[in-house]
Every structure is written in C-alpha cells, then in structure tokens.
Amino acid sequence: MSGLFPLEFLNEEAHLLTGILMGFFFGFTLERAGFGNARKLAAQFYFHDMAVFKVMFTAILVAMVGLYSLVAMGVVDMSRMWINPTFIWAQVIGGFLLGVGFIVSGLCPGTSMVSMFSGRIDGLVAFLGMFIGSFVFIVSIDWFPSLARLYVAGSMGTSTLPDVLGVSAPVLILGIVVMAGLGMIGAEVVERIFQKRRQAVELTPAPTPRARNWKFALTGSLAMLVVGAIAASPAPPVVASVEPVAIEPLSLAEDLIAGDPNLMVLDLRSATMTENGMVPDALPAADRAAALPYLQTLAPDTRVVVYDEVGIRPEIPQDWPRTLRYYFLAGGFEGWRTGVLTPVEPASYDLEHREQVARQNQIAAFFSGAAVQSSAVSAPPPVISSGGAKKKKNRGC
Amino acid sequence: MKPKSYWNPYLAGIVLGLVLLGSFLIAGQGLGGSALPKRTIALVGSKVAPEASAANPVLGGYLEDDSNPLKNWIVVEMIGVMMGGFIGAVSAGRFKATVEKGPRTTTKTRLVYALIGGIIMGFAAGLARGCTSGQALSGGALLATGSWAFMLMVFAGGYTFAYFMRRQWT
C-alpha cells in the first residue's frame, strides 16, 4: 500500500525548508497559547490553569484522529513515517526527570525557546541550562556504564500501543478520545475549584468566559468522536502476510479435470516463458498488480494457485484479497511438466502402484493430448467427464 | 500596544494539532524541541575530540554519515520555533525583556531554578531521546508505546515535585 503522504522530496534543502515552516507555526501557536510564559506552564501542576493539559491533549487528538483517518483512507503510508522507537526504561526514567525539570524551570525544552524569544530572561537561562544538561548526559554516558545500559534498557524497537495492548487502532483511538474528553471536562471542574484561590494565568486581565470553555470542550470531544467513528468504520489495512500452501502437480491436475469452479490458477512467469506452455486455464499474471481487479471478483474461499518456473514459495502481494485461499504449485511449471505431462513406466508389479501409474498416464495423456499409454489397468476414470474434458482440451497446453 | 489575551486553549490545541498533522504528512515525522543542544554538542565534539565523539552512544548516531549534524530537519524546525515564537510575541504585543516568576520569589532565585531545571531537562531529554514535543506530543499522536510512558511520567515527575517548588510559583 503506497499513499501519497508523507511527501518525498527530491533534494534535502526542500525538505529542510519545510522544517522552518512547520517550526514557525509550532512556535507561533505555542506563543499564542501562552506557553512562552513559565507561570502559565507551571500553573498546570497547581491545578489553577490546566492549559498545558488542554492544549496538549487537544493537539494529540486532532493529529492522531486526522492521521489515522488518512491512513484508513489509504492516503498516508505509515511505513514511511518515523515513529519514535521504544526504550521503555530510558523513557520512564527520562520522562520523570523531565517532569522534575519542567516544574523546577517552569518550562519545557520547546517552550523555553518561545519564552526566550518573547524576551523572557528565565527562558534564555533555561535554554542555556539545556545545553549544559545535554553535555552532562553525553559525558556521563561514557563515564558510567550503568547509564549507558539504562539508555538502551527496555528496547522494543518500533512499538505502538495497539500492538502492545492487542486492540485495533480505531478502538484504541476511540478510547483515547473518550478518556481525553472526560479529562478535559475534569480539568474544567478542577480549575473552577482551584481558581477560587488563584486566577488563571493571563498576561492581561481578560480571562476567557468559562461557559465558552465548557462548550469548546464538549463540542470538540463530540466532533472528535464523530470523526473517530468515521475513521474506525473502514477496516484498517491488515498487514499480516499470507503464506501460500504447496499443492502437488497431480493433485492440481485432478482438480482441474474435476472442473472445480472455485479454483483459479495464476501463471506468475513472464510472457516469454508462458509461450512454451502453461497449466491449462491458467491466467497470465506476470504483472501481479494487473491481476488484482480480477481477484477481487472471485468468491470468498476460492482457491488461488500461483506458480513460477521452479516452485519457489511466492510472496502474496499485500493488497491481494485476504478472503481467498492461496496455494503455490510444488516444483513450479517444471514440476507440472515432469509430474503431470510426462508419462511414466510402472516401477513394480504391485497392483496399487500400477493403478496409480495408469491414472497418472491418463492425466498426462489428457493434458498433453497424447495417446493413452498401454497399461494393465485401463478402466476409464469416472472423474473425467466428457464435457469437462472437451472444455479443458480446447485450451490444453 | 496593549498585550493581547492568550488563545482559548482548545482553539490553540486544534491549531497545534493541525500543525503536527501537517508535519507528519509533509515531513514524515513529528515536531521536536531538544535536538539542537545535542547536535550542537555533536558538531563541536566532532571538531574537538573526533574519536571520542564518534564512539559516544549519543553523538555517534549524529556523526555516522559524515555530514553536518546540524543539517537536520528537527534542528531547522527548532530555528523555525524561535522565529515563530518571536513573531507571535511581537505581533501580540507581548515581547518584553522580563523575568516570569511567582509572587513570593526573587528574580535571582527564579533564574537559579530556571538554570537547574534546564540542566535537568537537558539530561532527561538526552536519556529519553526527546522531550515533551518530540516524545509526548508527536510520539503520543503516533501511539508510540514509549512516548506514552514518557508522557505519563512527565506529569508524574511534575506533580511529585510541585510541592517542593510551590514557593517559586504560588
């Protein structure tokens, strides 16, 4: 599945230019939210101005619901998205320490820059402190092996919550939207209680009317729920790979003779190779993408047998319908040629063995159009119906 | 010019969410806020002590392909944050050389704490491979497991130490 987004850039400079642009909007929005003001950020931890929680979770909801909706629509290819790798212990300890630094400085790394550039000396000092702290960490990791171990402790690679919790992304997103919505309503209640003692942090005495905040929280949560429900309705792309099962040439031959209507054979070889013969009724499918529209018309549980020249287990493309059952021909077309098209001599006088040989030779004759080899057992097999035989023979190899 | 009021937090959140979504769609990654110090140290380190820097678990990754460690999307994005913050503050009439502090503390104490807090955050962002922007906000929207653990622990750390810092802020 390949979506339009994320965009691919021909040169690095154009890519970097988008960084300046996105950063500009980020910084501007943080400033307008009041996040260049350490007092407003710190107030989050004293409950009288919960703007940090409200802004942060609204942003997470919008970006999360928007992104996963676009993924469900096939517009975004998540395989090209950079997702933070998980080093759970490094992140747990680092997160706690960052929270401590947050309440001590009143700022977080991103907002310290906004604070500094809106003229705040404390923002400048905190930003310089970050350089010192980064340097201390970088040197310490060389000095203390235990810190180097913590840095990589709990490595889980690219891990996402739907994988870890075993729920589908749309369900989890709906859960997060509901929880965040309740959290926002809770934040409004908590603020109202704590603002009896301290006011919301405003640079100018123009606090937003409380009623409007309530409406915002409610309508925002409801809108998000609706969008989330829409995003949840199309099934998320299943990425589980399908392992085709091997099928023996003789077994396939019997099924073709029987005229199984729920059987489809695809030849994956190039056109130059199919000229020298194909399995009867097989559809040329060297271009696997071109076969897709045809596969989509097949009834569920139809058996699809694919083959190449030598019988390597093929990769079933991700977008081929998962409702079909996939097989590959053991030995490939070579296996078909030797196992089905070539008559065999009986190797022993065992009656059962000779019956098998006779049957195989009838099949060989059937598909190759040659005369039936003389054989001790020559009773015509009942499975070969005349109608089916005629139909197959016309397209014989 | 009389300073403008701050945006409604839900409105600011929606705008911020759209910026973050735009960043995912355009650049294939979220926003960040802590790469600049680390990568500046990588640049200086590669000139002053090339071997030690290349061998360092943090700096080594930034120096792998011999290119300038500051030639990086997040670094450029952080420069954009500074520009956006500046334009935002000036256009709202909020740009002012001052120190934000609580009513019960002195400027000197406030600046000392700002420095200590900054140092702790620099260390923490190094350990956690990101900060509230790169991990909590961006990784959170991507549903990354470690980012959610990080986010919850930021609030845990903040609320735990809020009691000890109450004189500074309230």
Short description:
Chain A has 397 residues and is an alpha/beta fold.
Describe the structure.
The complex is a heterodimer of chains A (397) and B (170). With 397 residues, chain A is of the alpha/beta class. Chain A has helices spanning 12-33, 38-43, 51-72, 88-105, 109-117, 121-143, 145-151, 161-165, 169-194, 210-232, 249-258, 271-274, 288-296, 332-341, 351-368, 386-394, and strands at residues 86-87, 155-157, 245-247, 263-267, 283-284, 303-307, 325-329. A five-stranded parallel sheet of chain A has the order 3-7-6-4-5. The longest helix of chain A has 26 residues, at 169-194. The relative contact order of chain A is 0.08. Mean pLDDT of chain A is 83; it is low at 204-209, 235-239, 371-380 and 382-397. Chain B is built from nine helices and no strands. In chain B, helix 7 (132-141) packs across helix 8 (145-162). At the A-B interface, helix 1, helix 2, helix 3, strand 1 and helix 4 of A face helix 1, helix 2, helix 5, helix 6 and helix 7 of B.
Question: How is the topology of this model organized?
Answer:
The complex is a heterodimer of chains A (397) and B (170).
Chain A lengths: L11 H22 L4 H6 L7 H22 L13 E2 H18 L3 H9 L3 H23 L1 H7 L3 E3 L3 H5 L3 H26 L15 H23 L12 E3 L1 H10 L4 E5 L3 H4 L8 E2 L3 H9 L6 E5 L17 E5 L2 H10 L9 H18 L17 H9 L3
Parallel strand pairs in A: 3-7, 4-5, 4-6, 6-7
Antiparallel strand pairs in A: 1-2
Chain B lengths: L8 H19 L7 H14 L1 H6 L3 H5 L9 H19 L15 H22 L3 H10 L3 H18 L3 H4 L1
